[in-house]
Amino acid sequence: MLYEEQPMKIKIIQGAIQEQTADTIIVNLFDDVTTPGGAAGAVDKTLGGAISQLIANGDLTGKAGEVGVLYPRGDIPAHRVLVAGMGKRDGYDLEGARRAAAAAIKKARDLNAKQVATIVHGAGVAGLPTDAAAQATVEASLLALYRYDAPKQKKDESHEIETLTVVEFDAGKLADIESGVEKAKGIVAGTAVARDLVNMPPNVATPTKMAETAAKIAKKHGLKITVGGRKWAGKRNMGAFLAVAKGAGEPPKFIVLEHNAMWEDLDTIVLVGKGITFDTGGISIKPVQGMGKMKADMGGAAAVMGAMKAIATLNLPLHVVGIMPCTENMPDANAYRPADVITASNGKTIEIISTDAEGRMVLADGLVYAGRYNPKAVVDLATLTGANVIALGAGVAASLFSTDDALRDKLAAAGQAVHERLWPMPLFADYRKSIDSDVADMMNSGGRFGGVGTSATFLKEFTDYPWAHLDIAGQALSEKDEPYTPKGGTGFGVRLLVEFLLNW
């Protein structure tokens, strides 16, 4: 359920995995192993070479994604042993650990396990840092088991795992494991919020619902919150945000959350998320095919919302501001039109070419508002352009534009670490020429070609600080199950932003 903490209990204990009383234990195996070592070797020895025999017979290969099942029949306390394939040893990384953990925990769920014990994937012979490997193991396990509580008369009665116990033989590693597990729990809580919001139907995940979500997070974690409506935005001359909201039946909400708002000696980082809770295209209406997917057009705001929950849960030593301008984009007698000229809150004028280029309009006023915090950096996230999906592919990577090389590199490194990948893109001066206007400072669209670049260049006009823009179109909603991301809302951006801030 939304706002609820992960119902599955997480425990950490020191001991031998083969001695655990859980009904299911999880060990692992690389694809080049003929005689298992480490935890798998200890289990193998206790079971009289059962794992070695399966390897010799070709029933266990250790390939990535494979999960072998053994039934000890009383030789150890566990009812079953799962052997997760880790794939190739060369180049094994945290993403490999995540995928192994996800495959194993889903297999355990399918086998109706209730009490599961696992080793930390990758922290042994793979040589990954213990805290990072523990975080990866628990994070992927929890994310893989995520389910959206859909409004159905007949609820999903499938089995849920009650307890996941992380087992470590070396007592000296327990502190690092505890640190990694705590990070994982906070990040997963934030990611679940983002996934839930994207998965909700647009008649539920309205701007008002977004504001209510922010209020619950603020109350629970002691965040400062501001929620502005039409009058509030009007007093601040947010013409771009209000133009998009003119045709909306649902009242718009300009949402601001602040972590450590009272600490003046901390670096300030501002996160801005596009919050179009449903995008019809407005007067420049979209084709009916696929329009339902536009419920995910608030994926940027959802990511910022989830990140703020995770940041507060982990109590990061930074002043972090989350800005989420939320509105529908609807056709209406009052809706803004092509050829209108709109004035944003920094005084710049915008000729409307397409009302379907609305995300950059709400972000424009969000980015101007970010400047009041004198930030060290501002990062915006938006499902902004179909051009991003054409350029980089759905579910592959987000585009990264930045006016600051150090900021760009930090974000790219964070994306690589959590496998929410970013690809650096240019802010060529040519793109600015594409949005030159005869009747205003700029147009809100540069046409069909180079859309991902022209949209980023448009946003740059509203920044005067180190800034990065992440076009996450194609990333917020998945049409297929991935190892630890079920079909639907992905929560893309939450893990990336938290990793970025953890290493600020």
Give a nutshell description of this structure.
Helix content is 35%, strand content 20%. It is α/β, with parallel strands linked by helices and 504 residues long. Strands 7, 8, 9, 10, 11, 14, 15, 16 and 18 form a nine-stranded mixed β-sheet that branches. It has a six-stranded mixed β-sheet with strand order 1-6-5-2-4-3, sandwiched between helices. A three-stranded mixed β-sheet has the order 12-13-17.
Radius of gyration, in Å, reads 24 Å
Please report the total strand number as a whole number.
Answer: 20
Name the shape in a single word: elongated
What is the CATH third-level topology name of the largest domain?
Aminopeptidase
Residue share in helices?
25-40%
Which ranges are low-confidence, i.e. pLDDT below 50, for 5 or more consecutive residues?
none
Largest sheet: 9 strands, mixed
Percent strand: 15-25%
Number of helices: 15
Query: CATH architecture of the largest domain, please?
Result: 3-Layer(aba) Sandwich
**The first-level CATH class name of the largest domain:** Alpha Beta
User: What's the N-to-C terminus distance?
Assistant: 32 Å
Could you state the CATH homologous superfamily of the largest domain?
Zn peptidases
Quickly give the structural class.
alpha/beta
How many structural domains in the coordinates? 2
Mean pLDDT: 95
